Amino acid sequence: MVSVLVALAMATLAGCSFEPEENVWEISGGIFGTRYHINVVLTDDSEILEALAQGIEQTLESVDASMSTWRDDSELSRFNQLADQSQWMPVSSELFEVLSAAQHVSERSGGAFDITIGPVVNLWGFGPEGRPEQSPDEQTLTQLLGQTGYRFLELDPERQAIRASSKQYLDLSGIAKGYGADAVARYLEGEGITRYLVEIGGEVRTRGRKPDGSAWRLAVEQPGVAAQQVNRIVAMDRGGMATSGDYRNYYESDGQRFSHTIDPLTGKPVSHRLASVTVIAPSSMLADAWATAFNVIGFEEGYRLALQENLAVYFIVREGDGFIARYTPAFATWLIE
Question: What does the alpha-carbon distance between residue 248 and residue 75 come to, in Å, rounded to a whole number?
Fold first, then answer.
């Protein structure tokens, strides 16, 4: 059961004595192995807040039940468990939407984003089984890599069904949290809430402004520090934001550092200068997937692709003992000087 805490985050605007006061309220809980924090702007009404908390919980549980690889009974796991995946399997509109977005980013990124790469990620020790005793040998890696690839997966929009030409293990960890933020945003708007900030494990979706008229302020974190520090601040009143980096999840073996980000084209952990990348997009789902893709591609090629796709992307790159930041013109409009 997801725990839900409803708390007053801050009082921001006092209206006249005859008008209800608008506040920013926080609803928080746990899902996807992480925490969520959702701020909504509305007047003080405990019944509405409790109803929203329950609705948010149900929305996220529905996403988890559809897209989790940690649940054997999830919709995604049922496909992964099929002995024969060559037959069309109908899926929910929610899962089909995420798979379609994943395939789009895979195509546009040249395969840098790939939801079939899960078995290779597990081989390197970043899956449920944990760290291996030794690094994978080239033969095993080459064999497994040859069995994966987003092009093996087929989607039929008319049937709203999927199939794979060879057996695949789909893992949506690089996009599902972002979709979860979008799903909550969709739920809130259906309930008439048009000013909100949704954050799930670092993936963000926003709309509207706070009662004082200011946009939601979000931090781009500085990599490589024990305590969280801010690199830059962005102000958002619409869209989604996601960050991917190699400075939190890695391990070292025989003096070598292994990032949790695996390049689907080589099957090996990335080893470039890019430490962190933040993407702002119309949806948190797309921001999430693109952030993962750019973390694979690296800065130089990634910057060129971001310009080509007209994406708002903020790169933090290692240089000497420190970091430098580079960002696209589309990202500059969101920054607070």
Answer: 30
Place of tokens 């080459």: 142
Ramachandran sector of residue 188 (left: φ over 0; alpha: ψ -120 to 50; beta: rest):
alpha
Tokens, residue 99 = 């798979």
Q: Domain coordinates of the chain in residue numbers?
A: 75-164
Beta strands in 33-191, from DSSP E residues, in sequence order: 34-43, 89-90, 153-156, 161-164
**Within 10 Å of residue 33's Cβ, how many Cβ atoms?**
11
Tokens (6 digits) for 125: 């020790």
Taking the C-alpha atoms of residue 299 and residue 287, their distance in angstroms, rounded to an integer, is: 17
Separation of alpha carbons 238 and 199, rounded Å: 13
Are the beta carbons of 292 and 286 closer than 8 angstroms?
no
What Å distances lie between residue 319 and 250, 275, 325, CA to CA? 20, 10, 10
Instruction: For residue 189, give the H/E element and its range.
Output: helix 176-190
* Mean pLDDT to the nearest integer, 225-236: 82
What pLDDT shows up at residue 325?
A: 96
**Stretch (H or E) spanning 238:** strand 238-245
* Three-state secondary structure call for residue 214: coil
As a dihedral over the C-alpha atoms of residue 293, residue 111, residue 145, residue 86, rounded to 10 degrees, the angle is: 120
Q: Cα-flanking dihedrals φ and ψ of residue 328, to 5°?
A: -80, 160
Average pLDDT over residues 58-72: 95
Between vectors from CA 208 to CA 206 and to CA 210, what angle results, nearest 5°? 100
Whether pLDDT at 252 is above 50: no
CA 221, CA 171: separation in Å to the nearest integer?
26
CATH topology of domain 75-164: T-fold (1.10.3980)
Reduce the DSSP state of residue 268 to 3 states and report it.
coil
